[in-house]
Specification:
Blueprint (H helix, E strand, L loop, with lengths): L1 E3 L13 E3 L5 H10 L11 H14 L7 H8 L1 H11 L6 E4 L4 H4 L6 E5 L9 E3 L2 H14 L5 E5 L4 E10 L2 E12 L8 E6 L5 H17 L5 E9 L4 E7 L7 H9 L3 H9 L15 E7 L4 E7 L1 H6 L5 E4 L6 E2 L10 E7 L2 H14 L1 E4 L16
Parallel strand pairs: 1-2
Antiparallel strand pairs: 3-6, 4-5, 4-6, 7-8, 7-10, 8-9, 9-12, 10-11, 12-16, 13-15, 13-17, 14-16
Helix pairs in contact: 1-2, 2-3, 3-4, 4-7
């Protein structure tokens, strides 16, 4: 059974039963779960929905790998920052506010990053270089989050790394470390690519291992997936945030083809109280890339060329996430992606050759018959 806030949910055709409901409505989800006599609830890649899953599971006595209190700590950016500081997890200085107050925010140094406490997909996350931008972005973040609370933190300049790990009996085990490449925008942080292996020194990788264990210890995680987003400048590391869930969208594919591990199956294991199976089950590749497809503003009509290249093996897997008729607003957050491609190769050179073929052959056609795809967001690997 599937519950989703959109009647056009991409997964709807695969569900035996579908419920069009606000997935953040705890009472509505509880009523559906009780009426349908479900065995368990699960969400594998949405930290705010995980709160609902944990709460309803507690209310109905259903199995869940995380309790509601812990889930609040790992889903609320303010609680998270507090525990980071207490646990020795390296992160930037910050302040927490429910209204714009320069007496509080003024303790920090520009540039500053503004975030809604309870949003996702980089929605409302903006970098402010001055007071005017700070006021504007603060108000936007205040409106986007459900609680209205906002966190303001100092900016750390560096390369972004995404870490997928799994906590088993309290011990954090690394599965996959990737670079997150972002749109070169002055004030936004939109990921257009995840690439394995990550470009990082041995010293940085050692810090990452230590940080994952500190997070597991600090948040009291016993058996849980772990997604950590951090920055490094070649020497120092600063953690942006984390959640006790798997990576969203196509991240499970990157883990699958880089490490051979079925992270969705492992999450299902711990939900049912079983020991997670982290043994490699799939062929591992030297280069694994998730490239996300973004578009210029317009009305999406159809894709061209992707399926043919998937059949030829140039694209390993292609996953559309928007339906015909969807209004595309451009590139403002990660949720604006319209599709994703998983590409595997033995070398960077082989990947780049595949990418050239892809860029020439594929299109995203709008309602007027024009190619609306942002081909510039598929640059070659260096």
């Amino acid at each position: 059974m599937l519950a989703d806030g959109s009647p056009a949910a991409v997964a709807r055709p695969y569900a035996d039963k579908f419920f069009h409901v606000d997935v953040f409505d705890i009472e509505a989800i509880k009523d559906i779960a009780a009426k349908e006599n479900v065995d368990f609830l699960i969400t594998v890649c949405a930290d705010q929905v995980l709160l609902v899953v944990a709460k309803v599971s507690e209310m109905l006595g259903l199995p869940c790998y995380i309790d509601f209190e812990t889930c609040q700590n790992v889903s609320d950016k303010i609680r998270m920052k507090r525990i980071f500081k207490l646990s020795g997890v390296p992160t930037t200085d910050y302040v927490e506010t429910d209204h714009f107050d320069m007496d509080v925010i003024g303790k920090l140094k520009f540039p500053l990053v503004v975030k809604p406490v309870d949003a996702y997909s980089s929605k409302g996350v903006r970098k402010a270089d001055n007071l005017e931008e700070l006021k504007q972005y603060y108000e936007e973040a205040h409106q986007i989050g459900r609680s209205g609370r906002v966190i303001v933190e100092e900016y750390f300049s560096g390369e972004e790394i995404s870490v997928d790990a799994f906590v088993v009996d309290g011990k954090a085990q690394l599965l996959n470390v990737t670079n997150s490449e972002k749109v070169k925008d002055k004030d936004r942080f939109v990921i257009f690519r995840g690439r394995y292996p990550a470009k990082a020194s041995d010293a940085v990788m050692k810090q990452i291992e230590e940080i994952c264990q500190k997070i597991a210890d600090g948040f009291g995680l016993v058996n849980a997936p772990l997604l950590v987003q951090l920055l490094h400048d070649g020497d120092k590391v600063s953690v942006l945030e984390f959640c006790a869930r798997t990576g969203g969208n196509m991240k499970y594919l990157l883990i699958k083809y880089a490490s051979g591990v079925d992270v969705i199956g492992a999450t299902l294991d711990i939900t049912l109280g079983q020991k997670p199976d982290l043994s490699p089950k799939f062929e591992q590749h030297n280069v694994v890339v998730n490239d996300f497809v973004y578009c210029n503003p317009g009305i999406f009509d159809h894709f061209e060329g992707f399926e043919e290249l998937e059949n030829k093996g140039i694209i390993n897997e292609f996953h559309p996430v928007r339906l015909k008729g969807t209004h595309i607003r451009g590139v403002t957050s990660s949720s604006d992606r319209i599709a994703g491609m998983n590409i595997v190769a033995d070398t960077i050179e082989e990947y780049n050759e595949k990418l050239k073929t892809i860029n020439k052959a594929v299109k995203v056609i709008d309602a007027d018959g024009n190619d609306m795809m942002r081909h510039d967001l598929l640059p070659e690997l260096k």
